[in-house]
Specification:
Blueprint lengths: L8 H4 L12 E7 L5 E5 L14 E10 L2 E2 L6 E4 L6 E8 L4 E7 L7 E8 L4 E3 L7 E4 L7 E10 L2 E2 L6 E4 L6 E8 L4 E7 L6 E8 L4 E6 L3 E4 L7 E9 L8 E2 L3 E2 L6 E8 L4 E7 L6 E8 L4 E6 L3 E4 L7 E9 L8 E7 L6 E8 L4 E7 L6 E8 L4 E6 L3 E4 L7 E9 L8 E2 L3 E2 L8 E7 L5 E6 L6 E8 L4 E6 L3 E4 L7 E9 L11 E4 L6 E8 L4 E7 L6 E8 L4 E6 L3 E4 L7 E9 L8 E2 L3 E2 L6 E8 L4 E7 L6 E7 L6 E5 L3 E4 L7 E9 L11 E4 L9 E8 L2 E7 L9 E10 L6 E5 L7 E7 L2 E10 L11 E4 L9 E3 L4 E3 L8 E7 L4 E7 L3 E3 L6 E9 L2 E2 L6 E3 L6
Length: 873
């Protein structure tokens, strides 16, 4: 504590020295309850430390200078800040939502203690009236964590909080408590909303049987299983917190399914088909529903609050399962079943009765009603006697009845526990017997009419004839005489014929049977086809009843008939001629009659092979033209070119000619034609063999070359043909010196080259052709190329010196002549003329020669002529 404005030394009267500007030392001493504290300073204040809390101190100040000490000042008393109270405990009261706070303190008692409780939201509650070192905090909120603290205040000083304590209040009670029962397994499902501060829940059912059923959970719902039937239970719920539980929450009541009824009994009232059902009541039951599920698929129901029920107007002949359900407030019990109940059987229907006149037996028949186990049929007859038969079937014969009786037919159906009402049929009257027809005979015509005859019977008024085949077909006729015709017999059937005599009210038994056979049925499904390979017609059919054998006939367009006979359902007619259209006919043969004629489709034999085949091979487009004479029965033709090592070539036509395209040059083919009628092909025509020869070579040229010894080399060349492995032959024909008797005909050898050189005499005209050939054939000659060789050298060359003129004889095919002066080292042209002479001027002595020329070239020199200048020779 600071001490301000202490008394001066002068004032205290303790300073006797007169000293100026000397430093004074002050000492403040505080005397406390257990220890003193002091502070020293040269200022006029100082701070006292290490004081005890909640204590009263007396303070005095002493001044000291050098060795002089003043008397202590007047004392000053003060109390220190209160001691910090110690929070000892906080005791919660879960039911009143309050807490008792308890603490302890030391030192002097302060003026006041302050207690507070603060939750996590910052809400603060203070203590009520103090009771020593404790107080009560009211109004705590449920499900909150509170922090408790206590402070002491003395004057203007308040202690710090020494410690705090936390307490969790009781959890908030659960809300929205809902409950429902699961009727199927008697499980109660309870649900709720969670309140603050809840750690777990305990749900309790207090039931009307005095038992309590519990479930515990940390969730907001709980199932309580295996509850007993027929109970009403109160739902209660408690939320459990850290140290407290909530108040008890209650939901609505829950009621379990009622207990199923016991001792279910049922019986049937046969008179009105009413089922009476009874039972014992189980707990929790408000009402009952009794159900009969019957064999007709229908359900019959009665509802009641009693322990018994009648279900009326049940249908007859039903077996019904008895089922019973107890109905509670919100659930029904499981289904209880009793024994089966069976209603009275339904009365028989369609009661028919007839008398067998032969033995006076009454035959009674009916339709069975539902629920019937057996029947009793009764005849009450006019003689007062009753005749009975019992059976489990739907018919009964009552035998040995007396003649001339009228009887009432009655019938009762008997069930498991009841009988039906009595059913009545028409009256039945017995009568006298009628004689059996004798000596029955029958004859059948081929038109399938049977004439039946018999001997007359005693007591007969009318006769009934019945014919029944082994396949169940029937025919009937009636007559008052001793014969009648059965006109509706079916073909191919074996009939058993019987005759019955009809009296006034009774008929005889059937006569002894007679069997007859009707005419055979015509064959069906007649099919025919031609075997192209051997020109055989195969005919097939389906056998008609009563058939022993068949005759199949072909009437053909050549006027001939072809026949086969068989016992089978098919036949082959062989060796038919080609190109015929035939009608198929078929007859079935029976024991004494034949069927009507059956016709099948037409059949066409294989077309005849083509004749008179002609052939033309075209090298230019690798094709061949075929033509032939028309074949009988043919609608189309195929031309064929075959060779062993190349693809076969075809052409098709509906006429009598066609062209084969794509022949391979150099290949030898066999050419044939085959006819077709759309189904079968003929045999091949007689073949023609020819090759696909190459075309004649084109581009032939003849070029004159050198002349030696009055012979000129002629070089011929041509274009190769488009045909593999081809060779060529050059041929030249002409005449020499244009003399008609001097002819020549020369040729090269066959060569694969496209040129050849041949020497020809001078002064010759020629015509050149070339041919190509291969393994198939040779081409025709090419277009001819004509020309001439060079002329021969002029003859009789003469020089006239006086005339200075040279003359000579004409050379054949020459167009010009040239005169040269020749020496051993030179050759000088003197003149060129188309004439047979030439003038020479200024010629020097020496030798001259003459040549003839044309487009093929220049001839060799004539014999030299000596020329002397100025002289003639």
């Amino acid at each position: 504590m600071d001490i301000h404005k202490p008394a001066t030394l002068a004032a205290l009267g303790l300073f006797h020295c007169t000293v100026v500007a000397i430093e004074v030392q002050y000492t403040a001493i505080a005397i406390g309850p257990s220890a003193d504290v002091e502070c020293n300073t040269t200022d006029l204040n100082c701070t006292l430390t290490h004081k005890q809390c909640g204590s009263q101190y007396n303070v005095s100040v002493t001044a000291t200078q050098n060795s002089c000490t003043a008397q202590p000042s007047t004392g000053y008393s003060f109390i220190t800040a209160p001691c910090v109270p110690v929070l000892n405990d906080v005791a919660l009261n879960c039911s009143s939502r309050s807490a008792v706070v308890m603490w302890s303190s030391s030192g002097l008692s302060p003026d006041v203690f302050s207690v507070s409780a603060v939750n996590i939201q910052g809400g603060q509650l203070d203590c009520g009236p103090l009771n020593g070192h404790s107080c009560v905090v009211d109004g705590l909120q449920c499900g909150q964590m509170y922090t408790f603290s206590v402070n002491a205040t003395q004057g203007q000083c308040t202690s710090f909080a020494n410690n705090t304590l936390q307490r969790q209040t009781a959890p908030c009670p659960p809300q929205n408590i809902q409950s429902r029962i699961n009727c199927g397994n008697n499980t109660a499902s309870v649900s709720w909303s969670r309140g603050n501060g809840t750690l777990s829940f305990t749900s309790t059912l207090d039931c009307s049987n005095g038992q309590t059923y519990i479930c515990k959970t940390t969730e907001t719902g709980c199932d309580i299983t295996n509850l007993p039937c027929g109970q009403t239970c109160t739902v209660m719920l408690v939320a459990e917190g850290q140290s407290c539980n909530s108040s008890i929450g209650t939901g609505s009541y829950v009621t379990t399914a009622p207990c199923p009824p016991q001792n279910i009994q049922s019986r049937i009232n046969c008179g009105n088909n009413t089922a009476s059902v009874s039972w014992s009541r189980g707990n929790g039951t408000l009402s009952f529903t009794s159900t009969l599920d019957c064999s007709n698929g229908q359900t019959y129901i009665c509802k009641t609050t009693e322990t018994g029920c009648d279900i009326t107007n049940l249908p007859c002949g039903q077996t019904c399962t008895v089922m019973l359900v107890a109905e509670g407030q919100s659930c029904n019990s499981s289904i209880g079943t009793g024994s089966y109940v069976t209603t009275a059987p339904c009365p028989p229907q369609n009661i028919q009765s007839r008398i067998n006149c032969g033995n006076n037996t009454a035959s009674v028949s009916w339709s069975r009603g539902n629920g019937t186990l057996s029947f009793t049929s009764t005849l009450d007859c006019s003689n007062g006697q009753t005749y009975i038969c019992k059976t489990t079937e739907t018919g009964c014969d009552i035998t040995n009845l007396p003649c001339g009786q009228t009887c009432t037919v009655m019938l009762v159906a008997e069930g498991q526990s009841c009988n039906s009402s009595i059913g009545t049929g028409s009256y039945v009257t017995t009568g006298s017997c009628v004689g059996l027809p004798q000596n029955v005979s029958a004859n059948v015509s081929c038109s399938n009419i049977a004439t039946v005859s018999w001997g007359r019977s005693q007591g007969a008024e009318l006769y009934s004839v019945t014919a029944i085949s082994i396949n169940g077909l029937s025919a009937n006729c009636t007559s008052a005489s001793t014969s009648c015709d059965l006109s509706t017999l079916t073909c191919g059937e074996t009939y058993t014929i019987m005759v019955k005599a009809n009296g006034s009210n009774c008929n005889s038994e059937n006569s002894a049977p007679v069997q007859v056979q009707s005419a055979p049925c015509p064959p069906q499904n007649i099919q025919s086809r031609i075997n192209c390979g051997n020109n055989t017609a195969s005919v097939s059919w389906s056998r008609g009843n009563g058939t022993l054998s068949f005759t199949s006939t072909l009437d053909c367009s050549n006027g001939q008939t072809y026949i086969c006979k068989t016992t089978e359902t098919g036949c082959d007619i062989t060796n038919l001629p080609c190109g015929q259209t035939c009608t198929v006919m078929l007859v079935a043969e029976g024991q004494s009659c034949n069927s009507s004629i059956g016709t099948g489709s037409y059949v066409t034999t294989v077309p005849c092979k083509p004749n008179n085949l002609t052939l033309g091979v075209h090298c230019g487009n690798s094709s061949a033209s075929l033509s032939w004479a028309a074949s009988t029965g043919a609608v189309a033709y195929v031309g064929i070119a075959q060779s062993g090592n190349v693809t076969t070539v075809y052409c098709q036509s509906t006429n009598t000619s066609c062209t084969l395209q794509g022949l391979v040059c150099g290949t030898v083919y066999n050419f044939t034609v085959q006819a077709s009628d759309g189904i079968c092909n003929s045999s091949f025509s007689e073949p023609l063999t020819d090759g696909a020869a190459p075309c004649p070579p084109g581009g032939l040229r003849a070029i004159p070359r050198t002349v030696v010894n009055d012979t000129q080399i002629l070089r011929a060349s041509w274009s190769a043909v488009d045909c593999p492995d081809s060779e060529y032959l050059l041929e030249l024909r002409g005449r020499i010196l244009d003399i008609t008797q001097a002819l020549f005909d020369v040729a090269s050898y066959w060569t694969s080259r496209t040129f050849f050189e041949i020497p020809l005499p001078c002064g010759s005209s020629y015509s050149a052709t070339v041919r190509a050939q291969n393994s198939a054939s040779s081409s025709v000659p090419s277009a001819a190329v004509s020309g001439t060789t060079v002329p021969c050298a002029p003859q009789n060359v003469t020089f006239s010196a006086s005339l200075s003129m040279v003359t000579w004889n004409q050379s054949v095919f020459a167009s010009n002549y040239t005169v040269y002066q020749v020496t051993s080292s030179s050759r000088t042209k003197l003149c060129m003329t188309p004439m047979l002479q030439c003038s020479l001027a200024n010629i020097s002595s020496g030798h001259i020669v003459a040549t003839a020329s044309n487009s093929a070239g220049e001839s060799e020199d004539s014999s030299p002529v000596l020329v002397t200048a100025g002289r003639r020779r």
